[in-house]
Write the structure tokens for this entry.
Amino acid sequence: MLGLRVSRRAPVLATLLAVIALLLAWAPFLSRMDLVMRHFDGPNYLVVAKTFYVPTKENPLPGYALSPSYFATHTPLYPLVLRVCSLFGGWKAGLFLATGFLAVASAGAFALYAKEAAPEIPVVLAVLAFLFLPARMFLYRALGASEALMSLLVVLAVLAWRKGRPEWALFLAALSTITRTNGILVVAVLCVALLVAGRVKTALAGGALAAVPLLLLFSWYRFLFGDFFALLHVHAESAGGAGRLTFPFAFIGEMAVRNDWETAEMLLGLHLFFILCAARLWVKGDRLEAGLIAVHVALFSLLRERDVARYYLTVAPFAVVVAWRDVWSRPRIAAAVLAVLAPLSVFYAWKTIPMNLCSEPAYRALLSLLTS
């Protein structure tokens, strides 16, 4: 599709490593995989996969979903993957099949990308860094979450750009907009890159076409909920009435004023890390990846949001691996880093998978919906 002519060795190796990483994450729970299924946001995505947002007579997640529009924030491409995978053994098996497939596919895509963007990094080290770092990504790649699909689409979009296929890059970016809404930023950066390259018509036409999936989704929300911008309104309500947007980095100050120094320092550290990574990528000539990180920093600096660590996962592969190619290209140093950080990621996943579960009554209601 992207004009790639590479050895099969890299994707095969990535597949093997992804399976091992996934089994490591699941190891303590293989006899009680319902814990994996109950971990949010898996139940939300399963509801969307079953109903495609159409309101049900009974609350599908009693105690959590306050209105049918609650599910509007869980955009549909990942639920569609779940629905397809559910054809092979039902909804439970489908969730685990989708999780495994996306873990393998995203790792394989990154192996191909790393060979193109950072050939000095040994493939095995690049893939291991991608799979285990950051710890939050290692966790979500093992759960019913959209991060692995988003990672697959964004990595392939950047690879397509590097291969001189902007039309494929925009197509993949368009799909990312209905996977996680920050896919809009991926489309925007690609269009700006095309404008800078003097391809004005391609930028305008491609950008307009890339907006179609999200516009169709918003039109569906308008039909069901009477609210074209239901996704944005539900997000805004989650800010607790203070308004989700603020001045750049002002939320850090708000946390400090509330005497929540830990959150303030965590946010400051996250933004600082990604700003430095964007600068490193820019200096090394990886302008598209630098631009993707920069626009995410710009947007997230405006949000009243504690959990930006999760939002940054879209660009984490570029920040954690490619920006630090001078570290990962030295096998002994890279192995030492992974020897410390990979076990921490596994430990983090083992401790957090049993947390943030939907309640037993909500889980029973969900199973009833899925079997109806």
About this structure: The first helix runs from residue 9 to 26. The radius of gyration is 20 Å.
